[in-house]
């Protein structure tokens, strides 16, 4: 039982990342009809927003009153570490606390940056491919993903960059003791739990935005019948551009909060890209609930397939189980779990 609970937690953790990325992908496809193979790169850019923000907070100076040390008649400048500007401005306690909480605080930095990147991407490139075949959209967005990947590699290097979680979330939570099992039988890292709850909040916020705001209602109407909404005098194209920016922000926030789990590197976007598309297809192209459901479902299945007991019987099954599930689902439900009729069927 403890192994089962642990794998469910692992699945929810992994499924959170899948669901967030797939949610953004489905938003873009549902509104603009674009198959965006650069969406994994947006996840990567979000992670590097956290890296950049953390580096900016750590940027400092050597105080001018460093003094000197005399050894054997020779005078040397005192060896001192740089003092970060945030420590200088806000004091030692507050400044160090800000640096410690760099990853959560980088959300404030990532949101406007990712929205701007999304809008520029849509206005500068994607809009020219709305009426082109999906194959053309895949090729151009995949090429854009490679370009963004190489740009990150050029400026940040090829090695992963550790970006730690706040000290308050270092360590693990003992689920075993809470559930009546032996202490230490089910322990799980605090930050992975934070990531799951963060993903749940973002997913709920996106659905609430689309369901209960006037802007969201117009967008949903445009997704269902774009031509009729345009005839009513509503600039649906402008709203769809904003939705592209919001979808980019969702992917970026998923990347920001994932940095303490997996140190950012230039190819992390590609690592999630194919899996996130499998999630979208299994959930049903254009279905937001389907993307979220499939994300968590496939995450849990992958977690159970990674158990030692399973790998002893079926070595390597954890590497292909998601694709096997996708094949089974599409053979039995060609539109996916919650797909709509007519989507990508022309």
Distinctive features:
single chain; 346 residues; mainly alpha; two-stranded antiparallel sheet; 15 helices; 68% helix; globular; transmembrane; transmembrane helix; LIV-I protein H
Q: Give the overall silhouette.
A: globular
Secondary-structure element series: HHEEEEHHHHEHEHHHHHHHH
The low-confidence runs, each spanning 5 or more residues with pLDDT under 50, are: none
Mean pLDDT: 84
Provide an overview of this structure.
The chain has 346 residues and is mainly alpha-helical. It has one domain. 68% of the residues lie in helices and 5% in strands. The protein is built from 15 helices and six strands. It has helices at residues 2-32, 39-58, 85-90, 92-100, 102-124, 134-156, 175-179, 190-212, 214-224, 226-231, 236-258, 268-283, 288-305, 308-313, 317-332, and strands spanning 60-61, 68-71, 74-77, 83-84, 172-174, 187-189. Strands 1-4 form a two-stranded antiparallel sheet. The longest helix has 31 residues, at 2-32. The chain is globular and about 65 Å long. This is LIV-I protein H. It is found in: Cell membrane. It comes from Jannaschia seosinensis. The chain crosses the membrane at residues 16-35, 42-62, 101-126, 195-219, 239-260, 272-301, 313-331. Keywords: Amino-acid transport, Cell membrane, Membrane, Transmembrane, Transmembrane helix, Transport.
């Amino acid at each position: 039982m403890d192994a089962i609970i642990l794998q469910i937690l692992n699945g929810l953790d992994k499924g959170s990342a899948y669901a967030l990325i797939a949610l953004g992908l489905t938003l873009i496809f549902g509104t603009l009809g674009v198959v965006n193979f650069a969406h994994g790169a947006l996840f990567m850019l979000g992670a590097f927003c956290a890296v950049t923000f953390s580096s900016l907070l750590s940027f400092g100076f050597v105080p001018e009153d460093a003094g000197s040390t005399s050894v054997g008649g020779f005078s040397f400048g005192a060896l001192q570490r740089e003092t970060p500007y945030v420590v200088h401005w806000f004091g030692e306690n507050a400044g160090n606390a800000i640096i410690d909480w760099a990853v959560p605080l980088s959300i404030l930095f990532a949101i406007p940056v990712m929205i701007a990147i999304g809008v520029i991407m849509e206005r500068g490139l994607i809009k020219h491919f709305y009426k082109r075949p999906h194959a053309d959209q895949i090729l151009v967005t995949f090429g854009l993903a490679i370009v963004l990947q190489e740009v990150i590699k050029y400026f940040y290097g090829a090695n992963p960059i550790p970006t730690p979680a706040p000290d308050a979330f270092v360590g693990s939570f003992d689920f075993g003791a809470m559930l009546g099992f032996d202490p230490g039988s089910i322990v799980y890292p605090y930050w992975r739990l934070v990531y799951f709850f963060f993903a749940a909040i973002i997913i709920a916020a996106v659905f609430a935005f689309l369901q209960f705001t006037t802007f969201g209602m117009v967008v949903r109407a445009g997704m269902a019948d774009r031509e009729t909404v345009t005839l009513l005098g509503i600039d649906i194209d402008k709203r769809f551009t904003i939705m592209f920016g919001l979808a980019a922000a969702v992917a970026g926030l998923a990347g920001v909060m994932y940095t303490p789990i997996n140190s950012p590197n230039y190819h992390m976007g590609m690592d999630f890209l194919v899996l996130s598309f499998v999630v979208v297809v299994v959930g049903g192209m254009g279905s937001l609930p389907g993307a979220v459901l499939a994300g968590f479902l496939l995450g849990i299945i992958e977690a159970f397939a990674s158990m030692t007991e399973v790998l002893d019987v079926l070595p390597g099954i954890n590497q292909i189980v998601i694709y096997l599930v996708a094949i089974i689902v599409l053979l039995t439900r060609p539109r996916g779990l919650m797909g709509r009729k007519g989507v990508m069927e022309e």
